[in-house]
Specification:
Layout: H1 11-15, H2 24-32, E1 38-41, E2 53-56, H3 59-66, E3 81-85, E4 88-91, E5 103-104, H4 126-143
Antiparallel strand pairs: 1-2, 3-4, 3-5
Length: about 150
Amino acid sequence: MALGAAGAWIGTRFLASIEAPIHARYRDRILSAKETDTEYGTVFDVGWPDAPHRSLRNKTIEAWEAAGRPPTGGRPNEGVVVAKSPYGDVVSYQSHTPGSGDEGDIDALALWSGQGVSLVRHVQPAAEIVREMSDEARAILARLGNDPSF
């Protein structure tokens, strides 16, 4: 905001909110991730073809890389059921967010994450996250001499 931004993507931070209905293993991975633990690409494309995304590196990505990064149709374990959600089977490379009711190999699923994942280190209520961000923005704008009246 101090440099003119009108907004920001902060989804990863809210995945670590109390209200986020994600799987505990996924939340643990977010809380322990480093900034170098993410991968940008289109590997989790089942149900979401050609859509660039960022996710935490995991066994699915590592197997795909070890196989030489083959295209859809020739990837290791492609189409194999790796988990079950309350809505049905989840296959390798599916664009599925691991929910609290999912069972199976959670580490093989799409663990969506932004580049700022290393800044997320604790779980707290969403309202508290928003309040902290607002307070920090006000303080920064005030230090820079900008009007923080929002």
